[in-house]
Amino acid sequence: MSAPTCYIFHGEDIIKRDEELHKMRAAMGEDGDLNRSEFDGAVATVPEIVSAVKVLPFLAEKRLVIARGLLSHITRRGAGNAGKKAADRLIAEMPNLPAYARLVLVEDASLRASNRVLKAANKLPSGYVRHFTKPKDLTNWIIARARDDYAQAITPAAASAIASIVNQDLLRAENELHKLVCYVDGERPIDERDVAALCPYVPEADIFKLVDALAQGHGEQALRLVHQSLHDDPRDPGFRLFAMFVRQFRLLLMTRDHIDSGGGAGRDAVAKALGAHPFVAGKLAVQARRYDIRQLETILKRLQRYDQDMKTGRIEPRLALDMLVTSLARQ
Asked: First-to-last CA distance in the chain?
């Protein structure tokens, strides 16, 4: 059976997709650069791309042409008659590519099953379509990625912490994981402390530590954490950290109300009720038990007053944070 000449790679798992592209480039051998072209599909035309892949390879058996975003560009809404003609031309050319051709059409998002070009490629003996679907559970994806691709163990809590900060961004998750793998260098499993030390997870970790310290009446520790956070982010005069306080206590009030209403105090129940990541929901469920509804409502009213005073220039943000932390630790 002859090798495919037209490939369509689409979907949100750009990590696996780019690994496949890397393998295809590597398979071109020493003269690969002489026989490879890459195009921006939003700029290049179908005739240009097809002409490039039909050029006879130089001192090699294959010619590789990669076009990114071509299909989404020519089949998008608003592409009009020009887009239809481009799609028709591509569909007509695909069965006639020479045996040495390797045309790879790459899309960062999943194409609809009704996409004309996708349907045509699926019917071709020389066509190859691969859908790189986005993982449903990013925490498990991180654990498997660490184990299978880096031979590195990572604790579920650490993987969940990474997942909670990357907002379903696989490339960012991969970058954070790679950084952590290099950091521990195979000496031990990656744990939550490593994530807090190396990743932009620190502000989230700090706000949980701050609330813990306040709930336990450890005012000095809470003040140290505030000053350390402000020192680590010199661009923030205090507004960002204050906003994190407000957000955290609002979430705690919602969590406490959910628990008191019989909604369940477990991590998954809180995550579903608040629409929060399970890792964050687990932390909230623990912290919410240290306050009652009246305490949280009083704290939010106090935060509202400080917010008004800061916005009207009556008090500097850093002084407001010091006063806030001191007063909350005493209650």
From this structure: 77
Contact present, 241 and 321 (Cβ < 8 Å):
yes
What angle in degrees, to the nearest 10, is found between the helix axes of 219-232 and 239-260? Answer: 130
At 67, is the secondary structure helix, strand, or coil? strand
* 122, amino acid identity: N
Contact 33, 134 (CB under 8 A): no
Nearest to 211 by CA among 161, 249, 163: 249
Question: CA–CA separation, 263 vs 59, rounded Å?
Answer: 69
Between the alpha carbon of residue 270 and those of residues 84, 140, 151, 293, the distances in Å are 49, 20, 33, 16
pTM for the model stands at 0.61
Element (H, E) at 151: none
- DSSP class of residue 115? -
The structure tokens 């906003």 sit at 243
Sequential pLDDT tens for the chain (331 residues)? 678 999 999 999 989 999 999 999 988 877 678 899 999 998 899 999 999 999 998 888 899 999 999 999 999 888 899 999 999 999 999 999 999 999 999 999 999 999 999 999 999 999 999 999 988 888 999 999 999 999 999 998 888 888 877 777 888 889 889 999 999 988 999 988 788 777 754 455 567 777 777 777 777 888 888 887 777 666 667 777 787 788 888 888 889 888 888 887 777 888 888 877 777 778 888 888 888 888 888 888 888 888 888 878 888 888 888 888 887 776 6
Phi, psi of 125 (to 5 degrees): -60, -30
CA atoms within 13 A on the CB side of 303: 19
Q: How far apart are CA 296 and CA 248, in angstroms?
A: 11
The CA–CA distances, whole Å, from 254 to 251, 270, 329 equal 5, 9, 21
Identity of the amino acid at 292: D
Cα-only R_g, the chain? 27
